[in-house]
Amino acid sequence: MRRALVTAIMGLALGAWCISAAAAAAVKGKRTQRNFTEVVVGARLSTSGARFENVYRVKSSPDGGGAVIQDGALDGTTYPVNAHDGAITFFRDGARTTKDTFTLGVPNTSGIGTITGKGMCTGGLGFHKTESCTYTIKGSYDLATSVVKLKMTGTDTRAASAPFH
Predict the structure, then answer these.
(1) I want to staple 79 with a disulfide (CB 3.0 to 4.6 A). Which of 47, 57, 106, 127 is the partner?
(2) Using CA atoms in the order 101, 56, 159, 85, what is the torsion angle rounded to 10 degrees?
(3) pTM passes above 0.85
């Protein structure tokens, strides 16, 4: 009985190692590319001087729904103003980290302005660990409500074994 138990445990350990090795080989091997569009809507959470923190709901994405935390800073004090950020997007299959540069356009008389920019993936967790991407950003912000609406369009590449939802 003891010998059977030890054999079963060693078999499970070997099987787990083989699965991990196969997953690692797939990550190093073939990669799959696709075009994507992601739509997020959020609001300003806090500001301190030129620094800001926003939170977003992912409304539309090939990866399904999710949430974003964005930490950034304005590079000036007059419109149009350039800015940069780092963001983490949380999906059910992992998290993706990104870096962006963008410009806040001059707001109109209602306090609504445009946002344009670009970004790239910088790593992540789960299926997003080996993901690479580049995208453009277009959207708007509202000074009265602090609501920000963004649409990112770009190209995403990841290991062939990582599913595109």
Answers:
(1) 106
(2) 20
(3) no
